[in-house]
Amino acid sequence: MIRIDEIYNNTIWPFIHTRIPLTRLFFCDPPGRTDVDALFNHGEDKEESNYIFLHDQEPIHLDIHQPLFDEIVIRNLDLNKKTGATHKAIITSELDSEYVEQVCSQYGWTPYYYFFHGWAALDWYRGYDKTFLITDLKQRTITQTFIAPNRIVAGKRQHRLAMLYYIFKHSMTNNWVSCPSVCPAENISVHDAVKSLNNTYPDIEDVFAAQQLPIDFPGETDHPMHSCWLSLFEQVEDSLLYLVTETVATGRRLHLTEKTFKPIAHGIPFMIVGTRGSLEYLRRYGFRTFGEFWDESYDDESDDNKRIEKIAQVLKQLNELDSESKNKLFHCVHDVVEHNWNHFYHGGFEEILWQELTAMLDAIQQDFNS
Question: Which fold has domain 120-346?
Answer without folding.
Answer: Rossmann fold (3.40.50)
